[in-house]
Amino acid sequence: MKPLQGITVIEMARVLACPLAGMILAELGARVIKVEQPVTGDETRGYEPFADNAPQSEGDDAGLERSAYYYAFNRSKESISVNLRTAEGQDIVRKLVTEADVVLENFPTGTLARYGLDWPSLQKLNPQLVYVSCTGFGQTGPYAKRKGYDTVFQAMSGLMSMTGAREGEPVKPGVPVADMTSGLWIALGTLAMLQGAKGRREGAYLDFSMLDGQIPLLSLAAARFFTHAEIPARLGTEHPGRVPSASFRCADGGFVHITGADQHWKPLCKLLGLDALAEDPRLQENSGRVRHRDDVMQALTQACQEMTRDQLCAACDAFGVPAGPLKTLDEVMVDPHLQARGVFDSFEHPQTGTFPAIRLPFRFTGFDDPTPSRPPLLGEHNDRVLAELGFSLQQIDGLRAQGAI
């Protein structure tokens, strides 16, 4: 048994943040029914890369089932294709919601109200409904009508301003941080509301702004700003308040990231042969090393260049200094520890065969662990879901003929 078994989620969402939240809930045991636009579906079905490395050709329906981007955030769900612009399509969603626990949606502010599918409308049908609206800037405020994507929120939140090399220009992180963290926040908020709703037998609504979701990530930088009015400088891999904490180039061109507290300072100096620094009274506490950052970093940088990446990692392990090799993605995929932990899995897809997947990072005792199953084909579950709602085969054929599904 999985922890969310018995929960039904209606996902009217696309691209990344909300679909990621839906996938998390699905692999924790919820039944997630994804409502997609007929013919095209979630637009990420057309996003590269494609599983067979062939470009999607115009009119190639099979191309809608080959997007690895779509695979990454839509596993373990069901798909129905419903035209929300039609009265019949809107009625299908209302029937779904009467028996559901959660609605996830990320339409532009005000869109679903025009269809009668917003929170006030659907709560009348299901008073215990948990409803999440995810937008770029929230339902209120001067930016509410603005549009944005992951990198816009990174830029506007301040995250991008503090990311990059010393004296360099701002850069974005290598993964869509705003999208991914928003998905995690949405999943957390949904679980909190489900628990609360269970206690009071009344639903709840979450107005989630992706920009808002980035601001808590600033907590450490904000603490320094609140204390010293300090605007963070770009420091590359260095930590603004801890020395050493940085990636160091090694003799073979690889990098090792070393982060140590006061108790690690002398062992680090010893393994690097920096006896003078180990005994320097100015450097015994972190505050002193921060004050003398440039001198400390220059000495550590030179010493680390005398060892290969593997040699430096082995020495740090032997001396109890926290450190790790800076790995590329191909190295991560074959990491023996991750392999032993079962981090990687796969699913069988009818269009592309066996396809790799990264599991959710939960290892339970008392519940079954989440495991990935394949993403749905577009509209794959139309007939089954509609039959469950009481539609006859003739009615389903009629909806299809009308373009409602």
From TrEMBL:
This is Acetyl-CoA:oxalate CoA-transferase. InterPro entries: CoA-transferase_III_domain, CoA-Trfase_fam_III, CoA-Trfase_III_dom3_sf, CoA-Trfase_III_dom_1_sf. It comes from Pseudomonas fluorescens. PANTHER family: SUCCINATE--HYDROXYMETHYLGLUTARATE COA-TRANSFERASE (PTHR48207:SF3). The keyword Transferase applies. The keyword Protein biosynthesis does not apply. The gene is uctC_1. Pfam families: CoA_transf_3. Keywords: Transferase. It is an enzyme of class 2 (transferase). GO terms for molecular function: CoA-transferase activity. Its EC number is 2.8.3.19.
